[in-house]
Design a protein that fits this description.
Layout: H1 3-16, E1 23-30, E2 33-42, E3 45-54, E4 57-61, E5 66-70, E6 75-81, E7 84-90
Antiparallel strand pairs: 1-2, 2-3, 3-4, 5-6, 6-7
Amino acid sequence: MSIDSMMAAQDYRGYLGVATETVAEVTGYVKGSEYKITVTIDHNKVEFAFNEPIGQFQYFNTDWQIMEWDEVEKILTVSNNSPKYSFKVFFPQQ
């Protein structure tokens, strides 16, 4: 787990106003397609469960993926080194 990924996920949760919730459902957009995303915090990780797979995966968390939060653009970048992938999730104000 990367502390940077955890901090990015927490910043994102704060922006959406769900920082104090253990489980929250939000809407995000990947390449213009809308997704319902269940965000769960559990001890030392934040998990994102998409209602449909992004590529070959549907679940992402701060234990296994690299996450970066762009406060200006309101975009969470999720990436991984093995297997190699990266995608951006845009979150409008909820």
